[in-house]
């Protein structure tokens, strides 16, 4: 059970400097709202859960509020900050980089900000990647582009060599934009920093196109990505309705979590079946996909299947290959389904026109939409506030519309996934009219 201790964010030490935000622009405060240390956000969101804990208010698990502190740990005049983007792309990476630079430069007066190229690889001196000077001019309008101007890569690197590099470059704060593996890496870097008795802050902005990092609210770029995926579903619907026995399959990203599939399907209610890793389905039998699909096509003339790439992996041979992040390489469930559906319709002598869509990387390489851009900027600002206040080994997130600081170990245990008993899956089943039980 989660306790208050699990949510305590580590600090590099006492804050000895007044934050410059208070006096920005002719003596006016730009931000009258400073976060008090007692201003904490409840972890539980239902009264029954809170009551069942049977503890006092002070003992309830709560998150530290994100936001600017009146007193800060680092002296902005001498602080040097490094930024790195790790792992797969996600809409909004450039928004986050830009907002970090602007917040540091414009509000805190930090002039020394650098970017490391190609993920943690860029933090290994021997790899020879140049360090990029990040200025407001350099980051102007980068938010209009997809991808990351710093480049990215998957895979862990030696934390000892990384800290050597941070020391060599006089970095005081490392801001890591990356997924769960990258956050585990950030934690190891923080541990190495601590073991050496250094005062280098390590603060993360969690990034996951699959929306599968727990406790941080919806991840940035997710909304842009599923909106893009929804376009393919709409296209599939148009195609299959114009064909005899039209069956559309739209495969979207989602290794262990089916959020993209669920949200994209719900965005326009064009899907007849949504298949995700969290919910098993059978092919054969009265409740299996093949019979249900044949029936749906006979009844309505066509059908669209939205398929998360990690769905139905139990139906195909497992691969023993791992990617650079240590994830098992998935089997191609879409190819398998296309084959099985083709054979099944032939056996039934039922007309079939199959259309396959794989929006794949196209959903994560686009620039963030307006809503995600705002979210990215605010997450980035929250990360800068935390870093300047000396917080470390933490990520930023948003819980029930409040920005929070969360210890890295708390978000790297377990993962966020679609609950088969939850209200999101219920909405999907209501929208598609597929049976709850397809096993
Ligand atoms: O981990 C997130 C993710 O988007 C998965 O859904 C997908 O399988 C994977 O990244 C693909 O990324 P890459 O090809 O860059 O490893």
What report would you give on this structure?
By secondary structure, the protein is of the alpha/beta class. The chain folds into 2 domains: 4-220 and 368-399, 3-Layer(aba) Sandwich (Rossmann fold), CATH 3.40.50; 223-363 and 420-432, Rossmann fold. 33% of the residues lie in helices and 17% in strands. It is built from 12 helices and 17 strands. It has helices at 47-53, 93-108, 136-139, 159-168, 180-195, 222-241, 259-268, 289-300, 333-347, 370-388, 408-412, 423-432, and strands at 10-11, 17-18, 40-42, 62-65, 71-72, 80-85, 112-116, 131-133, 173-178, 201-206, 246-252, 273-275, 302-308, 353-357, 391-392, 394-399, 402-407. The strands form 4 sheets. Strands 3-4-17-16-10-9-6-7-8 form a 9-stranded mixed sheet, sandwiched between helices. β9, α5 (180-195) and β10 (201-206) form a beta-alpha-beta unit. α2 (93-108) packs across α10 and α6 (222-241) packs across α7 (259-268). The longest helix is centred in the middle third of the chain and has 20 residues, at 222-241. The chain is elongated and about 75 Å long. The chain starts with 9 loop residues before the first strand and ends in a 7-residue tail after the last helix. Residues 25-30 have low confidence and may be disordered. Bound molecules: 6-O-phosphono-beta-D-fructofuranose. Residues 88, 154, 209-210, 253-255, 309, 323 line the site of 6-O-phosphono-beta-D-fructofuranose.
């Amino acid at each position: 059970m989660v306790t208050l201790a699990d949510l305590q964010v580590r600090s590099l030490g006492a804050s000895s400097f007044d934050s410059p935000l208070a006096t920005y622009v002719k003596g006016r405060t730009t931000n009258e709202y400073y976060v008090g240390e007692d201003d904490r956000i409840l972890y539980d969101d239902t009264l029954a859960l809170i009551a069942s804990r049977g503890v006092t208010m002070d003992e309830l698990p709560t998150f530290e509020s994100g936001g600017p502190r009146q007193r800060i740990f680092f002296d902005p005049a001498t602080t040097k900050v490094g930024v790195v983007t790790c792992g797969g792309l996600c809409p909004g990476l450039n928004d986050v980089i830009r907002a970090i630079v602007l917040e540091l430069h414009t509000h805190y007066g930090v002039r020394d900000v650098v970017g490391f190229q190609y993920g943690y690889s860029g933090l290994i001196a021997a790899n020879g990647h140049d360090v990029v000077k990040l200025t407001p001019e350099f980051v102007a309008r980068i938010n209009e582009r997809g991808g990351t101007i710093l480049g990215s890569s998957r895979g862990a690197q030696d934390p000892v060599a990384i800290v050597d590099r941070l020391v060599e470059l006089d970095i005081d704060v490392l801001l890591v934009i990356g997924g769960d593996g990258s956050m585990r890496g950030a934690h190891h870097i923080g541990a190495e920093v601590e073991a050496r008795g250094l005062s280098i802050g390590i603060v993360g902005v969690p990034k996951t196109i699959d929306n599968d990092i727990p406790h941080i609210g919806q991840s940035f770029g997710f909304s842009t990505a599923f909106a893009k995926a929804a376009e393919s579903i709409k296209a599939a619907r148009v195609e299959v309705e114009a064909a005899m026995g039209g069956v559309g399959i739209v495969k979207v990203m989602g290794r262990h979590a089916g959020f993209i599939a669920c949200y994209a399907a719900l965005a326009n209610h064009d899907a007849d079946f949504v298949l995700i890793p969290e919910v098993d389905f059978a092919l054969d039998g009265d409740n299996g996909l093949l019979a249900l699909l044949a029936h749906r096509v006979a009844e309505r003339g066509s059908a669209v299947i939205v398929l998360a790439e990690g769905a139905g992996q139990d139906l195909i041979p497992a691969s023993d290959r791992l990617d650079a992040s240590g994830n098992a390489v998935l089997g191609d469930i879409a190819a398998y389904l296309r084959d099985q559906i083709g054979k099944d319709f032939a056996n039934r002598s039922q007309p079939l026109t199959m259309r396959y869509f794989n929006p794949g990387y196209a959903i994560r390489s686009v620039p963030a939409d307006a809503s995600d851009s705002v979210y990215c900027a605010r997450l980035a600002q929250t990360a800068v506030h935390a870093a300047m206040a000396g917080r470390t080994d933490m990520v930023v997130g948003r819980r029930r519309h409040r920005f929070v600081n969360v210890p890295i170990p708390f978000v790297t245990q377990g993962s966020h996934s679609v609950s088969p008993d939850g209200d999101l899956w219920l909405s999907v089943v209501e929208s598609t009219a597929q049976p709850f039980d397809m096993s």
